[in-house]
Design goal:
The chain is mostly helical. The chain has one domain. It has nine helices and no strands. The relative contact order is 0.15.
């Protein structure tokens, strides 16, 4: 008497597992693609909004026919105060959007086995302690405070009886915001694999720090205030311009993850 043995092919024995793996892969690819699309939208909108802010600042400056520092454009009683407030709020919104689009961007920490000098490795470790986006978000928050607490008429120096608590809050917020922006630029100058961004960020960070410091020093010394105002406007333009470029440079970020996820879907089970 002959017995019949039922044989099941290997491919038929694993239908559920293969289907699950394929479904999981597709889900990952879908999430990665959605994340990339969201980052792209945030980068585009953030860069565009920031560009509009820069234009508005220059428009406001063109309406004042005397030497002024940038903060004076939004001082109490200035005809450009409302326009300048809108510009600062757009900088805040654009900065937060670009920060979100570029989240995860961090200065590379060079190891001991690399050719980097000790000072470079130390700088990389320090600047890589938190992300570029964290510094940009901090700067945006401080600019938000500065926009809502403008300086009093004439933006008096932090000396004398005319300097008020309101001026202290505005000046402190603005100075710290510029400092945080410079830190973000220096952090971006240590990001691995972004040669052009690194050069631009280092140049921008050093330029903004030196130019803004020179303008502030002239203001404190009460000499060359007309030159100091121009220097501060130049520093502001460089900083905002860098933020726009950073936003554009993040376009398409996340494609690598999406491609890897799609590759896992196409891989044989």
């Amino acid at each position: 008497m002959t017995s019949t043995v039922s044989r099941t092919s290997p491919s038929a024995a694993r239908p559920a597992g293969g289907a699950t793996a394929s479904g999981t892969g597709r889900s990952r690819a879908s999430r990665a693609a959605a994340g990339t699309a969201a980052r792209t939208v945030a980068a585009v909108v953030g860069s565009a909004v920031t560009a509009v802010a820069l234009v508005l600042i220059w428009v406001a400056r063109s309406r004042v026919d005397r030497p002024v520092y940038v903060s004076e454009l939004g001082a109490d009683g200035e005809p450009t105060a409302a326009l300048f407030e809108v510009a600062l709020l757009l900088v805040v919104a654009g900065g937060l959007l670009v920060a979100w689009a570029g989240r995860g961007l961090r200065a590379a920490r060079a190891g001991r086995g690399t050719q980097a000098g000790r000072g470079t490795r130390a700088a990389g470790r320090l600047l890589g302690a938190w992300t570029v986006s964290t510094s940009i978000a901090a700067a945006s928050g401080l600019f938000l405070v500065a926009s809502q607490v403008p300086c009093t008429a004439g933006c008096p120096l932090p000396v004398g009886s005319t300097f008020t608590v309101q001026d202290l809050v505005h000046t402190t917020s603005a100075v710290l915001a510029f400092a945080a922006a410079c830190v973000a630029m220096l952090q971006a100058s240590f990001v691995a694999g972004r040669g052009r961004l690194r050069v631009l960020s280092m140049t921008s960070g050093v330029s903004v720090a030196l130019i803004a410091a020179t303008g502030g020093l002239l203001s404190l010394l009460r000499v060359g205030t007309d030159v100091g105002g121009v220097l501060e406007l130049v520093a502001t333009t460089i900083a905002i311009g860098w933020l726009i470029v950073l936003g554009v440079s993040t376009l398409g970020s996340g494609h690598g993850h999406a491609d890897r996820a799609r590759a896992s879907v196409r891989a044989p089970a």
